[in-house]
Amino acid sequence: MVSLRELQQRMPLIGCLMSDKLNKIAAVEKAIAEKYGEEAVQNPKGNWDENKEKDYLKQSKQFYKKQRKNDEWQEKIDVNGIKISKKLLNRESLKCCPVCGAFPKSSMDDVCLVKFDCCNTCYIKYVEDREERWQKGWRPNNGNSL
User: Fold this and answer.
1) DSSP labels, 11-75
2) N or C terminus of the chain: which is more exposed, having fewer CB within 10 Å?
3) Residue-wise pLDDT tens digits, 72-117
4) 8 A C-beta contact, residue 95 and residue 115
């Protein structure tokens, strides 16, 4: 433990070191203010008030709420070895196969409906190995044959 007398003897030395450090800090702050403006060296709480705090909290709540919702939609589900976004597997928008009229029964039907606009059965029957023709618009109910 340091005695009061030793502390008093060391104070001028400590004061000298502190003044040197404070002078260096002041010089750095001055250089930053010259280069980037006075706002760069101000205390962040200097211009902060209750209204700004309320606005900030409101904005952060909205941001994180939107972020969570987006993360839920971006979540990927493994469907027979294919990673599909939950967003694409929304059954409300995929009511039935436009080719055969069948309701999608499996997740593979959903995948085929999203990618090829037909159920898995129609994909196997009409699209598999003929994707280019399918992408150009050919459909079996156009009166065309295989």
Assistant:
1) HHHHHHHHHHHHHHHHHHHHHHHHHH-GGGGS-GGGG--HHHHHHHHHHHHHHHHHHHHHHHHH-
2) N
3) 777 777 766 777 776 666 555 557 888 888 888 888 888 888 888 8
4) no
| The pairing of beta strand 82-85 with beta strand 76-79 | antiparallel
Q: What is the pLDDT of residues 38-62, one digit of tens each?
A: 888 888 888 889 999 999 999 999 9
Q: What's the rounded Cα separation, in Å, for the pair 141 and 133?
A: 14
Q: What is the CA radius of gyration of the chain?
A: 34
* Residue with the two structure tokens 């129609």: 122
CA distances from 41 to 18, 25, 31, 44, 48 (A): 20, 11, 10, 9, 15
pTM over 0.85: no
